[in-house]
Amino acid sequence: MVGRRPRAVVADDSHFMRSVISDMLEDGGIEVVGEARNGREAVETVADLDPDVVTMDVEMPEMNGIEAVDRIMSEHPTPVLMLSAHTDENADVTFEALDKGAVDFFTKPGGEVSMEMSRLEDQLVDMVTSVAEVDPADSGGDDGPSRTGTPSTRTYVDNPTLLIGSSTGGPKMVERVMSELPLAADFRVLVVQHMPDGFTGRFAQRIDARSDYDVREAGHGDRIGGGEALVAQGGKHMVVSNYRSGRMRVKLNEDPPVNSVRPAVDTTMTSAAEVVTDPLVGVILTGMGEDGAAGIEDIKAAGGRTIAQDEETSAVFGMPKRAIETGTVDEVLPIEDIVDGILHTARAEVN
Question: What structural domains and CATH numbers belong to the chain?
Answer without folding.
Answer: 7-138 (3.40.50.2300), 154-349 (3.40.50.180)
